[in-house]
Specification:
This protein has about 375 residues and is an alpha/beta fold. Helices cover about 25% and strands about 15% of the residues. Helix 2 (about 70-80) runs parallel beside helix 4 and helix 13 packs across helix 14 (about 375-380).
Length: about 375
Amino acid sequence: MRTRSPLWFRLGLLAVVSAVSMSAAGVASASASGSASQPVTDQQSQRPGSSASKPIVIGHRGASGYRPEHTLASYELAIEQGADYIEPDLVSTKDGVLVARHENEISGTTDVAAHSEFASRKTTKVVDGRGVTGWFTEDFTLAELKTLRAKERIPDLRPDNTKYDGKFEVPTLQEVIDLAKRESRLRGRTIGIAPETKHPTYFDSIGLSLEEPLVKVLRRNGLAGRNAKVVVQSFEVGNLKQLNKLVEVELAQLIDSSGAPYDFVAKGDPRTYGDLLTPAGLREIATYADWAAPYKDRIRPRDAQGRLLGPTTVVRDAHRAGLRVVTWTFRAENTFLPLEYKVGTGTAAHGDAVGEMRAFLNVGVDAIFTDFPDLGVAAVRGS
């Protein structure tokens, strides 16, 4: 098992993907000016690494504000817009191939319901303790999944994306890696990937473990070493500890706004995500991972009217533990924005997402996930 050393001593300063040997994007600075009203000097002073390096922009499911999520078109646009990394969520097919979908239930992101030949596969399953009805990737071979086409998940908020419905396949992890390699060569900069393993305890329970296929693909592509631009994320803890023993890439512990890692729940472990964010919990994360990845409200909560409050100590405490911090997810639509960054009254109208992102960059976060990579790049540049 590898011992996790402080990140500012490590060569692969950020984890995420590419076969081209280029320097990593670096550790984020807290120098972005903007609309955050709280003083952050203490948190900035605790940041690992060089204060001259810039924060990292990760295209959340690609550029999913502009294209249906988890499609090669979405990832390609994210790269074109300047994203440092692209994020494929990973689930398994029946034949053990890792594909990019936000959930293993795919009725909301594909046209599977329109395929009469698959009508009998609609079912109800218990995933992470919750009943879910629909069609599931683990009941389809890759060849069968490739007959489906992607569609926009939230058409009411993103009606422009619906014009791409039916145009794109469900991509495999290998296809996402191939895209990142090709774009890295064309653009002369390394494009990283930040894969997230979805529901690892559930997939283990049905004999389709995610970790081994993931490691196999990374090794096949020369991306399992310390210098690979790959960071693997998970909301669970046990599979990150397992991956820490199998590969040298960086790992990110996702921390939700409430609840607990499902592997804790399954084992009867009483700890919650809140426990992971205590100073002791963050020090424990640093023994097996490189990043703390809390939901935004863990860093800057909102008041009863939906306005941002001042920062918590999470970023400072994570930096003191030797972790970097990435937070999620920044979106442009008013329905997702804090009150002071909304523009107009329509829920689908775009507000000041750049301002919101800068409010978090000013607190000292090292990376951001966003559906709108072009706006993330603008925020990092101080626009």
